[in-house]
Specification:
Length: 550
């Protein structure tokens, strides 16, 4: 009986979720959001940004003490753009430490404006450090616009954002917000159909000259500095023609009527006198030892980075190529955009069908029946297909594993290779240059990239799952580069087996997991780290018609 209790408990939670869905559909009309989403201050800030790029900087800022060194950044990038007027430059950001350092240092180098758009911005050391950097940029006269999805926010973080937005050069907007901000569970009863649709986009753009996009959110676990879990991820730094497209996409989301100024949604606590910098409680001098060590990791990342001097000296090894930027229309969040404008349809149009090779790296891989049939059709035509996703032990969303694992036998029978990242993947052992993570933490794949044939590579926020395709908004770039495509195809090979399992079919049709441990090959006849309760739970989840939600 003790073994059945967890199963019954999970079943109860599942039934409760179904009841919440039904209730949410019934009473969703009761929710009320502010009639005016945009306040005069934030609208004025946006007008000032446009003035900056019309050559009239005097009207745009009355307090700009940017140094000549920072101005040289724009000059250095502009010089490279002039050499490649019709192309874009890219530079992959592999490690979490470099990802943090690049964002922090570029924030310190900006002179005009910084536009920031994220699905998750945690209220931890990394989140507060980057908010501090943005605040200090605003103190120099830089205009900062921060656009966040609301699904992972909370009432305490609202207070930080409200204090942050009090700066005259800063505006904060929340897209598709939750109405009940203190008791967030109520939102599942009053507005589930609406709040199920989330902005998953991730970008940070500096002076309309350089931008960082990719799979990473802002949080310790995304920036390789969490004691318990790490996300193996991939960002790309972009300059050139494509930056204009990223900027235009940001502006469409920023100006949308479902993007609300934070001040319209929440209010500062009564009689608060706390200043913004004082309120950053994760950055204090009396933190616990492990928290102090965590702050030192970020400090070291910045000290070890030479991104600022390399940019000024044109020493960042940007590769220049033809690129296409893709982004969902913001209307996807309100179901007002035509389906044909969805990013997934743009991908199909621009990439077409592979003729030789397809390599997919996706943290959440839920192919659905139609997707599986398409992959099998391609494999039957002789196209080489390889997939890397999370193992059960590495995934941070168990339900997603249920939407993927059931399709493995069918894919393998078609000759498709499947690799699953192990939660024990560590930086010391990892030979592959696509990602790294701190060795003492559990690792989970979070990258979203794939290569088609010999030339095209996608990097962005889009997972290969129904949620990315049909519900959330996503963004990314297609990079046309033979060398990058080759590197991605070659990344999924036997060299990966120190860090992943290769799933294969045994002669009797059962699945086996092949890996390398301590220098020797090991074969598991049962799925690693999956016990009886896990098997029952995954089986139950696979029976439910929830693939469209995953």
């Amino acid at each position: 009986m003790s073994m059945l209790y967890p199963v019954l408990n999970r079943l109860w939670h599942c039934l409760a979720l179904i009841m919440v869905v039904l209730l949410g559909a019934t009473v969703s009309g009761c929710q009320v959001l502010p009639k005016e989403p945009h306040l005069p201050k934030s609208k004025a800030l946006s007008a000032r940004v446009e003035t900056l790029y019309q050559g009239n900087a005097a009207l745009a800022s009355t307090k700009n003490t940017a140094t000549s060194k920072n101005t040289d950044l724009v000059a250095a990038i502009s010089k490279q753009r002039a050499i490649h007027p019709d192309l874009s430059g890219y530079h992959p950001i592999v490690t979490g430490a470099n990802a943090f350092a690049a964002r922090s240092i570029l924030t310190g180098m900006a002179t005009k404006n910084i536009d920031v758009q994220y699905y998750i911005w945690h209220d931890d050391q990394s989140g507060q450090l980057l908010l501090k950097d943005l605040w200090e940029a605003a103190e120099r006269g830089v205009i900062v616009r921060l656009l966040l999805d609301d699904f992972n926010n909370n009432a305490a973080f609202d207070q930080h954002l409200l204090r942050f937005a009090r700066h005259p050069n800063i505006a904060v907007r929340i897209i598709n917000p939750l109405m009940h901000r203190k008791f967030q569970t109520l939102n599942y009863l009053t507005g589930l159909p609406r709040i199920n649709r989330r902005m998953h986009n991730k970008s940070m753009t500096f002076d309309r000259q350089i931008t960082i996009i990719g799979g990473r959110n802002i949080g310790n676990e995304y920036l390789s500095n969490d004691q318990n879990s790490q996300f193996a991820d991939l960002d790309v730094m972009l300059i050139g023609k494509v930056v204009t497209d990223v900027d235009n996409s940001f502006n469409s989301y920023w100006s949308a009527p479902i993007s609300f100024d934070i001040e319209t949604l929440a209010t500062l606590k009564a009689n608060t006198t706390t200043e913004f910098l004082t309120g950053l409680d994760k950055l204090g001098q009396h933190e616990k030892s492990h928290e102090a060590d965590s702050l030192n990791v970020y400090k070291s990342a910045i000290e070890d980075s030479s991104i600022d001097s390399d940019l000024l000296k044109n020493q960042v090894p940007f590769r220049w190529s033809d690129m296409q930027f893709l982004s969902d229309d913001v209307g996807k969040l309100t179901k007002s955009a035509p389906v044909k404008t969805n990013l997934v349809h743009q991908l199909r149009t621009l990439l077409g069908r592979p003729s030789k090779e397809l390599t997919i790296i996706s943290s959440y891989f839920v192919p659905t029946n139609n997707g599986v049939n398409t992959l099998i059709e391609l494999a039957n035509k002789g196209i080489k297909i390889k997939i890397l996703t999370n193992s059960f032990d590495a995934t941070d969303v168990t339900a997603v594993h249920s939407g993927y694992s059931q399709w493995r036998p069918k894919l393998l029978r078609a000759g498709i290779k499947i690799y699953e990242l192990k939660s024990t993947a560590s930086e010391e052992k990892r030979e592959n240059k696509l990602w790294k993570a701190r060795s003492q933490s559990s690792t989970s794949l979070h990258a979203k990239t794939f290569a088609v044939d010999d030339h095209q590579v996608f990097i962005g926020s889009y997972n290969v799952d129904p949620r990315s395709a049909n519900i959330n908004t996503e963004m990314g770039v297609i990079i046309n580069d033979d060398d990058l495509a080759r590197q991605l195809h070659e990344a999924l090979s036997d060299d990966l087996l120190n860090q992943a399992y290769e799933v294969k079919l045994a002669p009797d049709g059962r699945l086996t997991w092949h890996t390398v441990e301590y220098g020797r090959q090991v074969v598991y006849s049962a799925e690693p780290e999956v016990d009886l309760i896990d098997h029952l739970w995954l089986m139950l989840m696979s029976w439910l018609p929830i693939d469209w939600l995953l």
